[in-house]
Amino acid sequence: MSSTDSRAAPSTVSAPVRAPTAILIAADTAFSSMHQKRAPHARRAGGEDVRPRPVGADHLGLSTRIHRGILRRPSQRCQRHPSQPMPELPEVEAALEVLRTRARGRTIVRMRVLHPALRRRLKPAQLRALVGARIARVERRGKHQLLHLDDGRILHAHFRMSGDWMLTETGAPLPRFARAVLDFEDGSSLVFVDSRALGTIDMHPAGAELDLGLGPDAADPAWTAEQLAAALAPRRGPIKPALLDQRLVAGLGNIYAAESLWRARISPFMRCNALEGAQVAALRKAIDAVLLRATGSRYTDDDTVTLDVYDREGLPCRRCDTTIERVVQAGRSTYFCPGCQTAGAPKRAAPKKAKRVRGAR
């Protein structure tokens, strides 16, 4: 899942949480209003923009604050990176909530595949066979989204680097990077948007056993420190790239791997098999804490709380004031504090303390 670092290619994470009933009622109201007859780019009398919006920026037409409330209480929100990081558990779980509320139970009348890469994966006969199929349930496995049809077939979506869902009405102008569209019998459409065109959609036959090669889900409370220690014991490489291996733990990505290691005071360079039991326990606890703070909102910022270490190169550590550093590991950016993430760190000159600048993140 790694890619060449261009000072981007980050990633992200969160535990699955169902939307409160009041929020879903508000979502129904917002979505129903979108079906009022109007010009595609019209505005209501009060000046409100009623154009379809990507769920990452404004979930089901709700405000960003309400969107975040679907995933976490206000006191647990955490700022997300303003660029477009690779989706991880929080983003994928937020997308799954869209599928739960706006795709589950809908009957498909047509699927349009707009990009050559997806046409190579989905044959015309498979698309024709989708007509009349109903989405019975949706499921997440790591970063994979599975739409189970009523006849046992599975529509399998993966966002990869930049995928997302957009809700709109059938016949409305499609966004620039629309790659596939599911049209439903109620006049709504679910659009697979992907600027990099790396996302995938596949169709699996009824009864197929899906072996996705995934480790335990990072948000699974049954995943223990003992299990993590056993999985790390045979590995001799550094811990940070290991945490990005979906076979070790599913869903954890670049941003929250860095945040978890910072919280556990573990150097990203520490060898996996050198971690002691107490350190693995601290890391497992840190992963839980980091996921709990995640908002699942990829393209917007939350001005309440900021990330602790990720994307803070040159700024003072929030814990010890040492200058945050950035290195590249396995083609990905790693941010860490050389002052307090000392467990397993290579010997080096004493790190410098950073000067705090007013207004620094």
Description:
- This protein is an alpha+beta fold and 361 residues long.
- Among the domains are: 89-204, N-terminal domain of MutM-like DNA repair proteins, CATH 3.20.190.10; 225-299 and 306-336, Helicase, Ruva Protein, domain 3 (Orthogonal Bundle), CATH 1.10.8.
- Helix content is 24%, strand content 17%.
- It has nine helices and ten strands.
- The strands form three sheets. The chain has a four-stranded antiparallel sheet.
- A hairpin with a 2-residue loop joins strand 9 (325-329) and strand 10.
- Helix 6 crosses helix 9 (277-293) and helix 8 crosses helix 9.
- The chain starts with 20 loop residues before the first helix and ends in a 25-residue tail after the last strand.
- Mean pLDDT is 77; it is low at 1-84 and 297-305.
Task: State the gist of this model.
The chain has 361 residues and is α+β, with helices and mostly antiparallel strands. It has nine helices and ten strands. It has helices spanning 21-34, 64-71, 89-102, 116-119, 124-129, 225-232, 239-243, 254-264, 277-293, and strands at residues 108-113, 135-141, 144-149, 154-158, 163-169, 178-184, 188-194, 200-204, 325-329, 332-336.
- Tell me the quaternary state: single chain
Number of helices: 9
Count the beta strands. 10
CATH superfamily of the domain at 89-204: MutM-like, N-terminal
Named CATH topology of the domain at 89-204: N-terminal domain of MutM-like DNA repair proteins
The strands making up the biggest β-sheet line up spatially as 1-6-7-5
As a whole number of angstroms, the C-alpha radius of gyration is: 21 Å
Beta-strand share of residues = 15-25%
Distance between the termini: 29 Å
What overall geometry do the principal axes of the alpha carbons give? elongated
> Can you tell me the CATH class of the domain at 89-204?
Alpha Beta
Uncertain residue ranges: 1-84, 297-305
What characterizes the major β-sheet?
4 strands, antiparallel
What do the pLDDT scores average to? 77
Helical content stands at 10-25%
One letter per element, helices H and strands E, the order comes to HHHEHHEEEEEEEHHHHEE
Secondary structure category: alpha+beta
Any guess at the CATH architecture of the domain at 89-204? Alpha-Beta Barrel
